[in-house]
Task: inverse folding
């Protein structure tokens, strides 16, 4: 089977979604012909090396319909002759009756542009995330008659309404997700004859080879050689960085430690202010968003990785944070929480330490334990490294995705633009 698959993404490229770029690159190398269509332009100032290796052409839909109403109208005009427009419009009207938001209207308008600008040679659509990108894919699929599939992840599962998930899953050719917890939730709503499959993201062993050098034996007793803690992630509620700061403030004053945080996010200024109130500012290096090579260097320099994930008030939560897998690939001991799919990776006291979410004192005790005991820290780090290198490489996932795309023997087609050359400047 030949033909191009259009991947519909929230934004591209994004530092926080390296796993998507890594997957696209792996699928390209396996022979899948891909084009990327993003709902918004990038906002990150940096990119990862993997983004430079992806060959797929990238186009952008109007993020807001008011940004380019003429383009939306052209999309509608081109869709008028398509037999599926009436079906898609009815589906949209039913959805709008249950979700009277501008966001719902925006997704239908973006679907009109996507469907109206579709070039010959496209054989399928694929959405990464089952909320907004999947809405655009579903409407465009109904308009064009092209089949569509979906990769669901974390926030998109847990913050979407059941009726919306149920109807999307009923319309997909297939759907996958990256955690057993997410698969169980989606299969509660999926048709019995088309279950959601579990495919872990994994990590690229070539980009994260095993650490050759031994980890340090620092034990927190030497103020000139503090134990180096690392946390990587966007400053948003579900990451629990405010809990981490409170836990660090609760550590005995005589313990020597330092913290590196990598990531941007909407709550970064609030966290820095919290650190100042707690008297921790001099011990914390806020590095902001970083490219993948610098994140890898930070994993290798650190003694302990901490990510106290939680379920946010709106239900948002992580699935299996890729940064934990990456940290363990570098034999870095991990302290995290028993949230969502994290226990699918970390076995307490075997490949890391787990504490209950929101338990500041428990988090402080776990951090102190591993600061004071470098032998245990190194033991857990090595065990975690062995597990992820044995079980969480991404090659198997790529092979399974290729089989789902029906592309095990796919011949790559030309790299011409999938959309007509009308993306906004």
Result:
């Amino acid at each position: 089977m030949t033909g191009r698959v259009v991947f519909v993404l929230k934004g591209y490229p994004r530092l926080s979604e390296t796993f998507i770029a890594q997957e696209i690159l792996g699928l390209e190398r396996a022979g899948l012909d891909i084009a990327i269509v993003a709902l918004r332009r990038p906002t990150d100032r940096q990119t990862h090396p993997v983004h430079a290796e992806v060959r797929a052409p990238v186009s952008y839909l109007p993020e807001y319909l008011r940004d380019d109403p003429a383009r939306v109208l052209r999309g509608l005009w081109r869709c008028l002759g398509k037999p599926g427009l009436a079906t898609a419009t009815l589906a949209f009207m039913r959805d709008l009756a249950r979700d009277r938001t501008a966001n719902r209207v925006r997704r239908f308008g973006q679907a009109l542009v996507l469907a109206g600008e579709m070039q010959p040679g496209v054989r399928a659509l694929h959405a990464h995330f089952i909320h907004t990108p999947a809405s655009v894919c579903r409407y465009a699929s109904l308009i064009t008659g092209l089949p569509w599939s979906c990769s669901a992840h974390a926030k998109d599962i847990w913050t979407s309404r059941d009726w919306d998930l149920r109807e999307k899953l009923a319309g997909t050719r297939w759907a996958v997700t990256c955690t057993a917890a997410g698969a169980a939730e989606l299969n509660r709503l999926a048709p019995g004859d088309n279950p959601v499959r579990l495919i872990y993201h994994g990590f690229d062993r070539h980009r994260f080879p095993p650490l050759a050098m031994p980890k340090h034996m620092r034990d927190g007793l030497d103020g000139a050689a503090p134990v180096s803690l690392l946390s990587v992630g966007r400053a948003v509620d579900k990451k629990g960085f405010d809990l981490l700061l409170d836990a660090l403030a609760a550590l005995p004053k005589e313990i020597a430690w330092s913290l590196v945080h990598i990531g941007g996010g909407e709550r970064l200024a609030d966290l820095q202010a919290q650190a100042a109130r707690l008297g921790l500012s001099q011990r914390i290096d806020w590095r902001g968003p970083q490219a993948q090579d610098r994140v890898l260097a930070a994993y290798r320099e650190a003694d302990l990785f901490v990510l106290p994930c939680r379920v946010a008030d709106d239900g948002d939560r992580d699935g299996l944070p890729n940064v934990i897998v990456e940290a363990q690939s570098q034999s870095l001991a991990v302290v995290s929480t028993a949230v969502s799919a994290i226990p699918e990776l970390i076995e307490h006291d075997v490949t890391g330490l787990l504490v209950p979410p929101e338990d500041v004192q428990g988090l402080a005790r776990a951090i102190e334990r591993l600061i004071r005991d470098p032998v245990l820290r190194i033991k857990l780090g090595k065990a975690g490294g062995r597990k992820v290198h044995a079980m969480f490489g991404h090659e198997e996932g790529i092979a399974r995705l290729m089989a789902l795309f029906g592309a095990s023997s796919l011949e790559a087609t030309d790299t011409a633009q999938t959309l007509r050359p009308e993306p906004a400047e």
